Amino acid sequence: MEKWYLMTAVVLLGLTVRWTVSLNSYSGAGKPPMFGDYEAQRHWQEITFNLPIKQWYFNSSDNNLQYWGLDYPPLTAYHSLLCAYVAQFINPDWIALHSSRGYESQAHKLFMRATVLIADLLIYIPAVVLHCCCLKEISTKKKIANALCILLYPGLILIDYGHFHLGLALWGVLGVSCDWDLLGSLAFCLAVNYKQMELYHSLPFFCFLLGKCFKKGLKGKGFVLFVKLAGTVVASFTLCWLPFFTERAQALQVLRRLFPVDRGLFEDKVANIWCSVSVFLKIKDILPHHVQIIVSFCLTLLSLLPACVKLTLQPSPKGFRFTLVSCALSFFLFSFQVHEKSILLVSLPVCLVLSEIPFMSTWFLLVSTFSMLPLLLKDDLLMPSVVTTMAFFIACATSFSIFEKTSEEELRLKSFSVSVRKHLPRFTFLPRIIQHLFIISVITMVLLTLMTVTLDPPQKLPDLFSVLISTELTSANPPLLLRKTGPELTSVPIFLYFICGTPTTAWCAKRCHVRTQDSNWQTPGRQSRTYT
Amino acid sequence: MAALSVMTGGGSWFLALALGVTLLKCLLIPTYHSTDFEVHRNWLAITHSLPISQWYYEATSEWTLDYPPFFAWFEYALSHVAKYFDQEMLNVHNLNYSSSRTLLFQRFSVIFTDALFVYAVHECCKCVDGKKACKELTEKPKFILSVLLLWNFGLLIVDHIHFQYNGFLFGLMLLSIARLFQKRHMEGAFLFAVLLHFKHIYLYVAPAYGIYLLRSYCFTANKPDGSIRWNSFSFVRLISLGLTVFLVSALSLGPFLALPSIFCLWFKPQGPRGFLRCLILCALSSFMFGWHVHEKAILLAILPMSLLSVGKAGDASIFLILSTTGHYSLFPLLFTAPELPIKILLMLLFTIYSISSLKTLFRKEKPLFNWMETFYLLGLGPLEVFCEFVFPFTSWKLKYPFIPLLLTSVYCAVGITYAWFKLYVSVFTDPPVGKTKKQ
């Protein structure tokens, strides 16, 4: 491509920012006995290197599952093993069984950071560059600007472990969008086998590929494609799980580690529907465990079904990307045992649609970074967070001129506004509302950050700031709702939720339905069905 | 919203570049810093805690105050802000004190004072010839110059990693150059005199200022063929200049080999561009032949050269050789492992961008490098690989630990000497500017 040197400069800048951020502290630094995610990664290298495969997922005297036991699929374990071989070559003390627990040194930190940087360089960054180069109908300069913004997205830089699975998933998206279906599905299967949370993205992949098969005709080429795809999926899963298929107990144990249904509906600090609803309605106490699972499953399925059905009937790369966003969002809001960091699984597809709805995407990405603030503050990452967020904002604002693109047309809400105007003829102020909401949300984020850092919360409301952070006013984000704080609640968060919730769901619903001129989907009756 | 959209609209690329590099500087805060950090902390302590009469006598620490008085006043001013960060750093006896707040204050003071540098770059961009009609922003000389100056690799790693205050000093120098280009000679002279009293290393380029101002400002007009018209001499101008620059340049320590270029400046004036060329030559000559020269002094030649590089293809070629080898010669300053990826990535970023953008700017003229120069520059890659990745694992490391430094210095010396020579030739072979100047 012309101006390759600018793209190279962007990649080099992305790498530099990643490395300089990684010079800061890591999660759990100097905090025995459990430390943090960094120690977990080191521990997995220790386990996979020193123990035979059959013992990796089982509790034993050598492998205490309570101390950062492996709870990701086999590909993570193989990756850790590979890193362990390199570690063994440099300094065996880093992964010596038992005695290396809590090992911390400057050299080891450099090693861990280097493995992450190399993984990013080999998998994630080329995928981003290729994605931007393959974007249609935009100039070279815009493609490069797009790459810059995606590479500067703070969430993926600040969370300190590698995002191998996101890189693989991105290759999957690229492959499938460019009609390299087998390679794309292989890449995605590998991604799922790396981190099971990638299942959030699995339904859009399935529906898109199924739609393609239908389009090609079920009796001819479509059927052949379907068989090939099925074969690829089965083969890749078999290959990854081969060592665990020898005994039934092995496979079951791995599954039990991957899907800890015993842990309950949610951990106490994630910002999704269950956490918020449980403030008024203690779901955990009312419903028995298995019913919770069924309810969560049903709601997740209901919320993503319309988008997936549409994608199957009308497969297109653009629809695929938008469906990825809405499905990931549904899973984040309604699914079982969601972690705060899972917002990254939503952020990646939003990065992919950055060039199409820049204003909303930028807003969402800013808020998603902000939502992880308590986690980042715990790891002493205030300065890098603020700096990278500002850099991201400046990059997006300059590249896409986002403040000029807030008309109804550009926000893709034209059909929605038109149909609302049939009932309320004066509903012309949607763009202005959204602009004002954006400004308010940015101001709130800045204020909350300042307050969290400088002030101590009042004695009676110890979680006040966490609550406020998760109730931040935005209509592009899923309502980042109340955290479980018990009786010290204020009524402000509830009010904010209802302000946010309705336009948000409307936005999500419109993402699924009314992008095309399909008249079947524009009758008011059908639309009201999609509101929750 | 409208205000925001104006701000992020078409003319704000300069602001975005400046903010972007500032944010990058913030990310460099936790990196390695050299003993210069302690030097400046000590000077903060000396100027804050002791009376003026003691400033140049105080010797508790080995890093005594050895910059001119303006710099001492600058440290004094900073110390009044420092006391809100950490009072302990202002204690003269707290040798090597580096609490996290001290680090934060010092780093932020460098980043903050760089604002003057940003302003100076903005002024320099106005002096760049924008006649080449380019609709594409990234191909405009102004844009390229802004990137080359704001994102200069050498300045980034010397100021924001190694730790020094070169940013605002170079800002003063570039601003004085810009003023001379804009024919505001008195301001230019004044700014340069101020600069000299901040850091005396700039004496190297004082002859260039002295002769240029005498020849092109005090003599108010030339004859048609460009030679001097003696009766156009203006005493008023001379005296006013004398009050500022002349006395100081008389003290200059003689980069004697710069004299021919100074003569050229007198007998064949070429306007501000000629002055700039002479300034760069003075800086380079003193770098090459001066006494107790520090590696960082190469920046004194590289930064002003950026201004010339976006003007002519020949200058661009010299600039690229000079900057690439000059920046590479700064590598030994950062010898710690965590900073290794930073210096390589930033060096690649600057080098690839500068070479490609200048090549694109001058694509209609002959290629910038001949095969010899290309090979030489490409040779820097293997040299780096050998020095940093291969040599430490060989048996020579214990016996001859100085080899990487030796190789780096010798290899870069070749490039810098070559650039110096080419620049000298260009000073003598370019046609003079023969226009008559009016008051």
Automatic annotation (TrEMBL), chain A:
Major site of localization recorded for this protein: endoplasmic reticulum
Catalysed reactions listed for this entry: an alpha-D-Man-(1->2)-alpha-D-Man-(1->2)-alpha-D-Man-(1->3)-[alpha-D-Man-(1->2)-alpha-D-Man-(1->3)-[alpha-D-Man-(1->2)-alpha-D-Man-(1->6)]-alpha-D-Man-(1->6)]-beta-D-Man-(1->4)-beta-D-GlcNAc-(1->4)-alpha-D-GlcNAc-diphospho-di-trans,poly-cis-dolichol + a di-trans,poly-cis-dolichyl beta-D-glucosyl phosphate = an alpha-D-Glc-(1->3)-alpha-D-Man-(1->2)-alpha-D-Man-(1->2)-alpha-D-Man-(1->3)-[alpha-D-Man-(1->2)-alpha-D-Man-(1->3)-[alpha-D-Man-(1->2)-alpha-D-Man-(1->6)]-alpha-D-Man-(1->6)]-beta-D-Man-(1->4)-beta-D-GlcNAc-(1->4)-alpha-D-GlcNAc-diphospho-di-trans,poly-cis-dolichol + a di-trans,poly-cis-dolichyl phosphate + H(+)
Pfam families, sorted: Alg6_Alg8
Pathway: Protein modification; protein glycosylation
Subcellular location field: Endoplasmic reticulum membrane
Any one GO molecular-function label of the UniProt entry: dolichyl pyrophosphate Man9GlcNAc2 alpha-1,3-glucosyltransferase activity
Domain of life, per lineage: Eukaryota
InterPro entries reported in the protein's UniProt record: Glyco_trans_ALG6/ALG8
EC number(s) given by UniProt: 2.4.1.-
Protein family per UniProt: Belongs to the ALG6/ALG8 glucosyltransferase family.
Name of protein: Alpha-1,3-glucosyltransferase
Native organism: Equus caballus
UniProtKB/TrEMBL annotation, chain B:
InterPro entries for the chain: Glyco_trans_ALG6/ALG8 (IPR004856)
Membrane-spanning residues: 12-32, 141-158, 188-214, 234-267, 274-291, 297-321, 333-355, 375-393, 400-421
EC number(s) recorded for this UniProt protein: 2.4.1.-
Keyword Ribosomal protein among UniProt keywords: no
Organism: Equus caballus (Horse)
Family: Belongs to the ALG6/ALG8 glucosyltransferase family.
Matches recorded under Pfam families: Alg6_Alg8 (PF03155)
EC top class named in words: transferase
One cellular component term from this protein's GO annotations in UniProt: endoplasmic reticulum membrane
Domain of life: Eukaryota
Membrane topology note: Multi-pass membrane protein
Name assigned to this protein: Alpha-1,3-glucosyltransferase
Subcellular location: Endoplasmic reticulum membrane
Gene Ontology MF terms: hexosyltransferase activity
Pathway entry: Protein modification; protein glycosylation
UniProt keyword annotations, A-Z: Endoplasmic reticulum, Glycosyltransferase, Membrane, Transferase, Transmembrane, Transmembrane helix
Gene for this chain: ALG8
Endpoints of the signal sequence: none
